[in-house]
Amino acid sequence: MTALGPDGAALDPQPAIDFASPDCALPADGVFTAAGSCTIAATASVHGVPLETSFEVDVVAGAPAALTLSAPATTVAEGGSLTFSVAGEDAYGNPIDAAGAALSSSVASDLVDGLTVTFPTASPHDITATLGDVVSEPLRIEVVPAPDPSSDAGADADPGSDAGASAGAASSGSNTASGSGTSAGAGTASGSGSTSSPGSLPMTGAGAFLPIAGAAVLILAAITAFAAAARVRRR
């Protein structure tokens, strides 16, 4: 900065000029390292007359010094794609515009379209970004084999394969009753009855023997009457 006189000519000698800023640190060597806008006030005194002015300084990031490559995932199926992000900074750590970075892969068959990479083959792939003379550290992407559709062809069991196992099953129940009656006169009576109905429970109890018991009583009565008649004839 140069102090000027009323005629616009540079003062000789130049007065000492002081600089100050309310919003940024002023480096002693005059080298700004933090990117951004900075308001600077300059003050001086010439023959006891104070002079003051202010100006803006826009500090922009320097040349790329480092690149960082990132991806939404580090594992992808064979044939899949990933879109990467590239961030950069200058030698003082100020962010830079890394939109011009180019991607490359360690596998020649990979398809690179801007920041998107498609991986046709299953294997480890190292992706790097380059901007100017700066190259990022490689980012390892594991590409795994895609599922074989034919392996799932018989995965689902035929829902009707066991239909016959139960279609012909029937529940059944049977009731059987039998009874016999014997008299001293060598008369024997026996009878049996059975009932069957699907899903029924066996019938048990005294009621199951009522028809047989009745038949036995009739036969016994007939035998008794026959014996009595025989005794009458013998007399």
Model description:
- The chain has helices spanning 163-167, 210-234, and strands spanning 18-20, 36-46, 49-59, 66-70, 75-77, 81-83, 85-89, 95-96, 102-105, 111-113, 116-118, 124-131, 134-135, 139-144, 172-182, 188-198.
- The chain is mainly beta and 235 residues long.
- The strands form five sheets. Strands 5, 9, 12, 13 and 14 form a five-stranded mixed sheet that branches. The protein has a three-stranded antiparallel sheet with strand order 1-2-3, with no helix packed on it.
- A hairpin with a 5-residue loop joins strand 15 (172-182) and strand 16.
- It is rod-shaped and about 95 Å long.
- It starts with 17 loop residues before the first strand and ends with a helix.
- Overall pLDDT: 76
Largest sheet: 5 strands, mixed
Helix vs. strand class: mainly beta
Gyration radius over CA: 55 Å
Count of helix runs: 2
Task: Please state the overall shape, judged from the principal axes of the Cα atoms.
Answer: rod-shaped
What fraction of residues sit in β-strands? 35-45%
Low-confidence stretches: 161-213
Distance between the termini: 171 Å
What is the element string, with H for helices and E for strands? EEEEEEEEEEEEEEHEEH
Total E-strand runs:
16
Helical content stands at 10-25%
